[in-house]
Design goal:
This protein has about 500 residues and is α+β, with helices and mostly antiparallel strands. The protein contains 13 helices and 14 strands. Helix 12 packs antiparallel against helix 13 (about 435-485).
């Protein structure tokens, strides 16, 4: 979208709209957020204004473009003579962090090519006007092109200013990390002391592959937000075990697809979370262990216990976070910052969710074994095994019930299809004879079709969820055989 220079021109892209959109941003546009390390190793947040290093060059260029008689060829010459030989640093500027093809790596050579493409395009429009007697307003096109050029170069100078600010902060020894809007994969590390290291990983501008994580390592172990396993409907066990905080959120598009959501202000959450974890670990190690490790483990176990004992519907207040006492977690980002979409799970969907969360908890036993170096986790491990063993008989009973329903539905479907066939045969015989009977038969046929459609969907839904549940059971039994060899 923004990086394909070969066929781009200044008429086809509305850079004014793009500039107006990003010009309302604050973090990573008007200032950078940074983490400042004090002499006592405590961290604090600071904001660093993005200085307009290239104000003079930008103003001169815009003034030149706004002159009445300046042509596109004149603008091309201006760039070549005044900007292309300037010692400008390169840029990596990502427009929208969670969308695809957003990275803006500019070159003044590319801008010249873009203007040349535009001139060729205008020549084509003039020929179309001449040959086909079209009434394309060339002067209006040129006016729009010049506005687009100015807007694009405003973006370029903003990107250059931000890049220059990155370079300044990178030279500051006390600044251990700063925010950015760079496209692609970046990993930053802060090693505070022998026991405490923080990693921040981003992959901006890659659509569904975009992400934003922070990871806290304490005494060589990754601190995991275990309560997320039971709190989030779409929790990812790998992410929970390998990252401390998933900063990106999720939203649904108009087709119901789940997409990543990353905004510039998420840097505020990420940076303040890192500072909170570090400073708590340094000032009160016991409180850090209680809040970041013990409490998360306890909450996961308690939520599993609730799921084992709970047989009603579960409401998710935004389709992702369940109402299972997660909001007071230290890892929680308030629901107002997430796309709200209320959903209720019941019946076989609820059973599938419970099976995933209860039996899937066994995957975290290895993490609890690692935690034994920090605190005694033996009771938590025993709790998981006891709760899963308690749930299995109930699950097997419910599965039998569901399979009986599926079998009954299949028989009912066969009966309905036979009935449908009979009704269609009767309809053929009555055609041209009895109008009232035909109307009645057509109503019957439509009703049977609707019933078949509804029952088919119900059975597909039950069958699909049954297969998922059976897979959870299979994985659970495999993991349990591994856990049996662990010394609690």
């Amino acid at each position: 979208m923004y990086h394909s220079y070969k066929y781009d021109n200044y008429l086809k892209n509305d850079f004014k709209e793009i500039f107006d959109k990003i010009d309302n941003e604050t973090i990573n546009y008007k200032y950078l957020l940074s983490i400042y390390k004090q002499n006592n190793s405590l961290l604090k947040v600071s904001s660093y204004p993005i200085i307009n290093h290239f104000k003079e060059e930008e103003e001169k260029f815009i003034d030149f473009c706004n002159k009445e008689n300046v042509s596109l060829i004149d603008i091309k010459k201006y760039i070549k003579n005044n900007l292309i030989n300037t010692d400008f640093i390169g840029t990596n500027f990502c427009f929208e962090l969670d969308k695809a093809h957003q990275t803006f790596n500019f070159s003044f050579y590319f801008e010249i090519t873009r203007i040349e493409n535009t001139i060729h395009y205008l020549t084509l429009l003039k020929r179309i006007n001449s040959i086909f007697n079209k009434n394309i307003d060339i002067e209006e096109c040129i006016k729009e092109i010049k506005e687009n050029i100015i807007s694009r170069f405003k973006i370029i100078f903003r990107a250059l200013n931000i890049e220059a600010t990155y370079n300044l902060l990178d030279k500051e020894n006390e600044i251990v990390l700063h925010s950015h809007r760079k496209g692609g994969f970046f990993k930053q590390e802060i090693k505070i002391n022998q026991n405490f290291t923080v990693y921040l990983e981003t992959n901006f501008g890659y659509g569904r592959s975009s992400y934003f994580y922070t990871t806290v390592k304490y005494k060589g172990l990754i601190i995991s937000p275990l309560s997320e396993w039971t709190a989030y409907r779409f929790a990812n066990a790998y992410q929970i075990k390998n990252y401390t905080k998933v900063v990106h959120r999720y939203s649904k598009d108009k087709y119901g697809n789940l997409n990543k959501l990353i905004k510039q202000n998420y840097w505020d959450y990420a940076i303040n979370f890192i500072i909170l974890a570090n400073n708590l670990a340094l000032m009160n190690e016991k409180e850090f262990i209680d809040n970041f490790i013990k409490k998360e483990t306890f909450k996961m176990i308690e939520n599993i216990r609730k799921l084992v004992e709970y047989d009603e519907k579960i409401e998710f207040h935004n389709d992702y976070v369940a109402d299972l006492d997660y909001e007071d977690s230290i890892f929680y980002i308030h629901k107002n910052n997430i796309s709200v979409d209320k959903v209720t799970l019941e019946g076989v969907q609820l059973l599938s969710y419970k099976t995933e969360k209860i039996l899937g908890a066994i995957n975290f036993i290895n993490k609890l074994v690692e935690y034994k170096n920090i605190f005694d986790t033996s009771s938590f491990i025993k709790n998981i095994i006891e709760l899963t063993d308690k749930f299995l008989p109930y699950l097997n009973t419910e599965l039998k019930k569901i399979k009986l329903i599926i079998a009954k539905n299949k028989n009912k479907l066969r009966e309905l299809k036979d009935n449908l066939s009979e009704q269609k045969d009767l309809l053929e015989k009555k055609k041209g004879i009895d109008g009232y009977a035909i109307d009645k038969l057509e109503i019957n046929i439509n009703n049977i079709k609707k019933e078949i459609d509804l029952l088919s969907k119900t059975n597909s839904h039950l069958t699909y969820n049954t297969k998922i549940i059976e897979e959870y059971k299979k994985n659970y039994m495999k993991e349990k055989s591994t856990v049996a060899n662990i010394s609690i």
